[in-house]
């Protein structure tokens, strides 16, 4: 049963895209509506002014998140994505800008103080720099960590691993040592029939094919052969031994005649009344 609410999950996007593009003017590089979201690309130099306009004049009060994405084949390989929320209008907006490894993006910590942690996360994972952020430190990895894990060219195993050493009583860094080589997964179920040899299958010996059944030649002439029944015509053929043979050779005694001449037995006499029955009925027969 569908549950109806007084307000939709999101308000209608009708007219919102044109409104925002008109307000941002030449700062807009591209704008579109896709996957149920309004996405607007803004020039890197004007990102702070564009977000200030959206906050102050179009009621997008909250900065929900700042995310990153890496496209190594592009000149500006990184996307910096700002997710905005309008509480009063029940709308969400995605603003994107691009940058490379060396060019910083203007900070928005002057607009939303919580942007400091978000920008530190993007810096830690992607290496994107933010001009004006006075506390741009790593936030998810250790301070001595080398590289940025979410970059597409970051090695799958990293450079070093850390563990707590009981001998040194502190955390120590060591080169990564894998117990096995990296495995490649193709997400194909072996039950659906893979077109390659699975690891370990090369050791299995395929069973030899069963021989084809040979048809018996039909009998063309004469009566069918019947097996001769086996009999024991001589005592030697029984295999029971001399004592058993001698005992079996004795004649069987005839059954004794019955003493009563073979008459049928008579019927039993009727039983008397149970004891005390005459007293119960007053002594009457």
Any chance you could write out the topology, listing elements then pairs?
Layout: H1 16-24, E1 28-34, E2 37-42, H2 47-57, E3 62-70, E4 78-86, E5 91-99, E6 105-106, H3 115-126, E7 130-131, E8 160-165, E9 170-175, H4 242-249, H5 277-280
Parallel strand pairs: 2-5, 6-7
Antiparallel strand pairs: 1-2, 3-4, 4-5, 8-9
Alpha carbon gyration radius: 50 Å
Low-confidence stretches: none
Query: What letter string, H or E per element, gives the SSE order?
Result: HEEHEEEEHEEEHH
**Order of strands across the main sheet:** 1-2-5-4-3
Strand content: 15-25%
- Mind telling me which CATH architecture of the domain at 16-131 this is? 2-Layer Sandwich
Structure write-up:
This protein has 285 residues and is α/β, with parallel strands linked by helices. The protein has a domain at 16-131: 2-Layer Sandwich (Beta Polymerase, domain 2). Helices cover 15% and strands 20% of the residues. The protein has a five-stranded mixed beta sheet, covered by helices on one side. It has a two-stranded parallel ribbon with strand order 6-7. The protein is elongated and about 135 Å long.
């Amino acid at each position: 049963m569908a549950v109806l609410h007084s307000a939709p999950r999101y308000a209608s996007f009708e007219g919102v895209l044109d409104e925002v593009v008109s307000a941002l003017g030449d700062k807009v590089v591209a704008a579109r509506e896709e996957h149920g979201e309004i996405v607007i690309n803004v020039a890197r130099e004007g990102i702070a002014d564009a977000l200030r306009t959206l906050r102050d004049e179009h009621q997008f009060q909250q900065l929900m998140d700042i995310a990153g994405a890496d496209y190594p084949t592009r000149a500006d390989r990184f996307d910096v994505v700002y997710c905005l929320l309008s509480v009063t209008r029940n709308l969400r907006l995605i603003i994107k800008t691009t940058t490379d490894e060396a060019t910083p993006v203007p900070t928005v910590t002057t607009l939303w103080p919580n942007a400091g942690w978000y920008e530190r996360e993007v810096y830690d994972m992607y290496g994107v720099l933010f001009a004006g952020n006075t506390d741009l430190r790593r936030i998810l990895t250790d301070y001595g960590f080398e590289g940025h894990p979410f970059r597409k060219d970051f090695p799958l195993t990293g450079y070093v691993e850390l563990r707590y050493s009981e001998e040194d009583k502190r955390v120590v860094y060591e080169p990564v040592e894998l117990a096995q080589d990296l495995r490649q997964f193709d997400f194909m179920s072996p039950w659906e029939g893979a077109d390659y040899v699975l690891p370990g299958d090369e050791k299995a010996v395929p069973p030899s094919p069963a021989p084809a059944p040979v048809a018996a030649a039909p009998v063309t002439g004469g009566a069918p052969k019947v097996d001769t029944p086996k009999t024991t015509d001589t005592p030697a053929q029984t295999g029971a031994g001399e004592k058993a043979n001698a005992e079996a050779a004795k004649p069987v005694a005839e059954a004794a005649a019955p003493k009563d001449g073979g008459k049928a037995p008579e019927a039993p006499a009727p039983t008397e009344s149970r004891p005390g029955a005459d007293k119960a009925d007053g002594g009457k027969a």
